[in-house]
Amino acid sequence: MAFAITLSILLITGAVVGVIAQRRAQRTRSPSDLDAEAEANHALVRLTGGLVPPNARAWSTANAETGRALTRAAECQREARTRLSEARTAADYAEVTRLAREGLDHLRVARAGLGTDSPPAPTPAFAATSR
Q1: pLDDT (tens digit, 0 to 9) for every residue of the chain, 131 residues total?
Q2: What angle do CA 46, 47, 49 make, to 5 degrees?
Q3: Packed helices 33-50 and 64-86: angle between N→C axes, nearest 10 degrees
Q4: Is 58 exposed, middle or buried (0-12, 13-18, 19+ CB in 10 A)?
Q5: What DSSP letter does each residue of 5-50 carry, written as one string?
Q6: pLDDT at residue 97, rounded to an integer
Q7: Quick one: how many helices (H) and strands (E) in the chain?
Q8: Rounded to an integer, what distance in angstroms lies between the CA atom of residue 51 and that of residue 64?
Q9: Phi first, then psi: what are they for 93, rounded to 5°?
Q10: Which of 13, 76, 85, 120 is spaced 20 to 30 A from 105 at the CA atom?
Q11: Computed from CA positions of residues 118, 98, 100, 115, in that sequence, does the dihedral angle turn out positive or negative?
Q12: CA end-to-end span of the chain, whole Å?
């Protein structure tokens, strides 16, 4: 009798442990829609801020390659802004982030062509103020 009770307890415990292990294995942590939206907004803000010329005269005298890079960065910014307004899922927000990062890459090329290699200064995603 004691053997049957011990065996039953071991089987039930093993089944519970197996179910828990299976659920943990299936659970893949993907960013929530809110996290994805915040990341997309942050990338778009960085791109938009980088398109503001620190020296408009230097930007107006840019060569053709630099001009194309600036134009492409602005196109990425416009497209990302449009898609952000329509985004509803984490995948939509990931596409906005990808477009904004592509625009930042074009912006780096343009800044290198202008001799201002420094990329736009990163801005914190959430500015915390404490007093």
Answers
A1: 777 788 778 778 878 887 777 777 666 556 677 888 999 999 999 999 888 876 767 777 778 888 899 889 999 999 999 999 999 998 999 999 999 999 999 999 988 888 776 555 544 444 444 43
A2: 65
A3: 150
A4: middle
A5: HHHHHHHHHHHHHHHHHHHHHH------HHHHHHHHHHHHHHHHHH
A6: 95
A7: 5, 0
A8: 17
A9: -65, -35
A10: 85
A11: positive
A12: 69
Question: What whole-number distance in Å separates Cα of residue 125 and Cα of residue 42?
Answer: 6
Assigned token pair, 21: 């292990």
pLDDT of residue 118: 57
Residue carrying the six token digits 């519970």: 16
The amino acid occupying position 131 is R
What is the DSSP annotation of 35-90?
Answer: HHHHHHHHHHHHHHHHTS-SSHHHHHT--HHHHHHHHHHHHHHHHHHHHHHH--SH
Q: Which two tokens stand for residue 44?
A: 């778009």
